[in-house]
Amino acid sequence: MENVDPKHTESGEAPKPIEKDYESHKDNPGPAKPAVTEKDENGAGSVLKWILPVAVIIGLIVWFVLRK
């Protein structure tokens, strides 16, 4: 427990209330602007572009070899 990241501890604050005023968002129902414009730093997308095709090719090779 000595390696606990301080960002992931409980603050003791009350949780944010659940929004119930849905009428106020009828004019602009889309996601918040930061959710769309936020820069993707350290994302997994660039790694998955290489891992998934390689995994599919290896899976196909294994499937072709084992089906006979």
From TrEMBL:
Residues 1-28 have a biased composition (Basic and acidic residues). It comes from the Bacteria. Residues 1-40 are annotated as: Disordered. It comes from Pedobacter jejuensis. Keywords: Membrane, Transmembrane, Transmembrane helix. This is Uncharacterized protein. The chain crosses the membrane at residues 47-66.
